[in-house]
Amino acid sequence: MKNKHFFIIGGGDLQADLVLSAKKDFITHVFDYNENCSCKNLADYFHPISIADKEKILQLAIKFNIAGIATAATELGNLTACYIGEKLNLGTNSYECAKNTTDKSLMKKVFEKNNINHAKYFILKDEKDLEQITEFPIIIKPSDRSAGRGVVKVFDKENLKKRYYEAKDLSYNKIVLAEEVLKGKQFSIETISSYGKHQIIAITEEYLREGEFADDFLETQHLVPARISKEEKRFIKNEIIKILNAFNVKFGASHIEIKLENLFYNNKQEYKVSLIEIATRIGGWRDVLVYHSYGIDYLQLLIQSSLKQELKKVNTKAENFCLVKMIFTKEDYEFYKKLKTLKPQMIVKERIFIKNDEEFSYSSSLMDSKGYYYLKISKDDDPEDYISLNHL
Question: What's the number of CA atoms in the CB half-sphere (13 Å) around residue 70?
């Protein structure tokens, strides 16, 4: 198939492995407005075109008679990929599905229509809409952004207006959501689908910055596989299949974030899953986490799905833990350097952007990360030793 063309939407660092994976079998094209993006020199062709420019990319897709199109870790790229995929009858979800899994105000309507547990919320389009909010704390977020941009916890009315306008400035559609703070532990579920047949690839433990701060939702590290019971896993999987069907997911990867509560009624263990959000694309870092814990090539599954191929059943038994740690603070960086010195064999992949200790500043979203690295941890070891920053 090396004479066939394959489009990758987005040329950032988190799309690099997808480009390399597609390049094994296809002539690859990358699209990004940034002419200095990470993938510029990885692909066979680089096009300095915004990933939002659907029509221009569509015309090139027709010109090159592409075999497939995909993206990773970008909602905006997923919108374009699905728009083109639907026009050309490729292995993508519908454009409507992409919109419903990108714009959280639309997402909420699908939740309600299908009786999916989710946070109570208000749609904020104008300052007068803030009058609806009387209980705090509450989460404010732009309706159509990702990577934690603009997501904050507001504790009182004094800060509400300021945070609303900050989120509105970040939003493409100028819609802001206000949500209740959900209880429970946070997980993400990584899936793959082909012709509407869904498989759970992995369940990820997500760790957020601790503390009662406005932006303590910053994701700091992720662990695969999640350390949960068989009963919890079974309950989550049943809910996830329901969610995928509700959004009419047919092809590709999905990244679904939930809160899981353990409840007791009449001395009986019960569980409550509340959906935070769903994105119909691979989550950031998940392909590496899945590969080093399950031995699954998540990117190849995505490519196969984009070509409308039937998918084989994936391995469901993890051989190792894999932990990705983001670097936001000097403490994070010092821990990385210590591990690099004492246990370098554990670091299976790394992308470090910082060069000296003077470059640290306050981080408010994943885009502020100074780098990240992956640790492969034996199933006989305790991952908690590496989730904490003070054991070495």
Answer: 35
Which residues, in sequence order, are bridge partners of residue 29?
Answer: 7, 45
Q: Say yes or no to pLDDT of 327 above 90.
A: yes
* Cα–Cα distance, 210 to 217 (Å, whole number): 8
Q: Is residue 32 predicted with pLDDT exceeding 70?
A: yes
pLDDT at 70 over 80: yes
- The pair of three-digit structure tokens given for residue 203, joined into one six-digit string: 């369940």
Token pair 């309600």 in the structure block, residue: 112
**Whether residue 28 is found in the same domain as residue 147:** no
Cis peptide before 137 (omega within 30 of 0): yes
Torsion sign, CA atoms 266, 271, 274, 276: positive
Tell me: do 288 and 377 sit in the same domain: yes
| Domain stops at, among 128, 159, 179 | 179
Per DSSP, the three-state class of 16 is helix
Are residues 276 and 108 in contact, defined by beta-carbon separation less than 8 angstroms? no
The residue with greater pLDDT, 181 or 83, is 83
% of the chain surpassing 90 pLDDT: 80
Contact 288, 322 (CB under 8 A): yes
Residue 259's DSSP bridge partners are: 186, 274
Same-domain check for residues 80 and 207:
no
* Range(s) of the domain holding residue 167: 120-179
C-alpha pair distances (Å), 373 with each of 83, 173, 320, 347: 33, 34, 16, 7
Query: What is the number of structural domains in the chain?
Result: 3
In this structure, are strands 320-326 and 121-124 parallel, antiparallel, or unpaired? unpaired
Residue type for 285, please? W
41 and 145: one domain?
no
DSSP letters spanning 151-211: -EEE-SHHHHHHHHHHHHHH-SS--EEEEPPPPSEEEEEEEEEETTEEEEEEEEEEEE--S
Confidence label for 129 from pLDDT (cuts 50, 70 and 90): very high
Judgement on whether residues 318 and 214 belong to the same structural domain of the protein: yes
CA distance 350 to 372: 6
Residues 19 and 163 in one domain: no
Inside any domain, residue 97: no
Contact yes or no for 248/97 (Cβ under 8 A): yes
- 110 falls within a domain: no
Query: What SS3 state is found at 374?
Result: strand
